[in-house]
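User: Could you go from structure to sequence for me? I need the amino acid at each position, not a summary. Structure tokens:
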């Protein structure tokens, strides 16, 4: 029962990273390709961009219900970056809505675009920073700790910043791959192909940087990866996927479906690798009393009813999502 809930939690994170990440990345990419890309980005995102947050909400509900101690700890110690993420999501959604549907295309349009691009970068940046704080192990629950030690130091550091940049570059990479298939002419496709390659290189370099910085912080991620067979397999798979995707991008006739499947599998492998390397720890605490999936889960009765609710909810959500994407693509094909 607990295992199934953990699997659903992991899948929800993967889907949010892929679908929500593609949307955030589209806003970042728009900064570099100029105003001409607005129409392509808007066509690719609308109207599914709001629906993608369902997977984040699902993950939050699972944490709140099945692992309440993890949820409350994150909400307390990391409330500052969490608040920035929430503000970024709100501002980004508002800016995108007004930019796309405002009947008056006046001077305000440029401010909507600026806010959309800024929040598209800030939100994944701080999502990565939060993940970095969960991994690093500077979090403390001591009542003797000062404000800075308890609420600033765990996430305001070089390692967490590198995690944030990695997150933003990964989302940009996903978006660039997806936008290759949305481009309406060969020039646009080549532009997004080049962006895909650049984003891939930056993401790989940031991934290597994270492992190096981890060692300087006495966090032995490399050793943890080598001790996890599943983690090593996932890292090797994600690395080999780079070669496959690069080759697909070099082909004159891009296979959109193959590209999207490949990047989806690659990102899934990255998230699963992190989960395998970290398992069963979710939040590393500097006292050594880490919060794990085993010592923080709710009672069996709660897990039972949560699982029933999740199954019932997914039976409604998944077909609705498939139908939404189908209708959207039929509309624009």
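Assistant: Here is the amino acid at each position, in order:
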């Amino acid at each position: 029962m607990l295992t199934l809930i953990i699997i659903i939690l992991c899948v929800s994170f993967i889907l949010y990273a892929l679908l929500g990440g593609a949307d955030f990345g589209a806003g970042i990419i728009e900064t570099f390709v100029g105003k001409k890309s607005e129409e392509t980005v808007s066509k690719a995102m609308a109207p599914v961009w709001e629906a993608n947050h369902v997977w984040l909400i699902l993950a939050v509900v699972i944490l709140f219900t099945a692992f309440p101690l993890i949820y409350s700890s994150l909400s307390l110690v990391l409330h500052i970056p969490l608040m920035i993420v929430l503000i970024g999501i709100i501002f980004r959604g508002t800016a995108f809505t007004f930019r796309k549907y405002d009947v008056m295309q006046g001077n305000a349009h440029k401010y909507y675009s600026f806010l959309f691009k800024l929040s598209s970068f800030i939100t994944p940046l701080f999502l990565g920073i939060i993940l970095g704080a969960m991994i690093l192990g500077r979090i403390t629950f001591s009542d003797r700790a000062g404000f800075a030690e308890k609420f600033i130091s765990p996430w305001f550091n070089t390692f967490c910043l590198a995690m944030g940049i990695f997150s933003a570059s990964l989302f940009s990479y996903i978006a660039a791959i997806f936008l290759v298939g949305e481009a309406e002419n060969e020039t646009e496709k080549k532009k997004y192909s080049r962006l895909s390659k650049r984003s891939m290189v930056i993401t790989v370099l940031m991934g290597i940087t994270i492992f190096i910085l981890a060692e300087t912080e006495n966090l032995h991620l490399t050793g943890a990866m080598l001790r996890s067979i599943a983690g090593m397999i996932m890292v090797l798979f994600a690395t080999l996927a780079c070669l496959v995707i690069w080759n697909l991008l070099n082909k004159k006739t891009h296979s959109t479906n193959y590209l999207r499947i490949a990047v989806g599998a690659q990102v899934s492998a990255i998230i699963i690798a992190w989960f395998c390397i970290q398992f069963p720890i979710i939040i590393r605490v500097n006292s050594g009393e880490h919060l794990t999936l085993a010592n923080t889960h709710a009672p069996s009765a709660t897990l039972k009813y949560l699982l029933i609710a999740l199954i019932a909810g997914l039976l409604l959500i998944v077909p609705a999502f498939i139908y939404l994407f189908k209708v959207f693509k039929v509309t624009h094909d």
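One structural detail worth keeping in mind: DSSP finds 13 helices and two strands in the chain.
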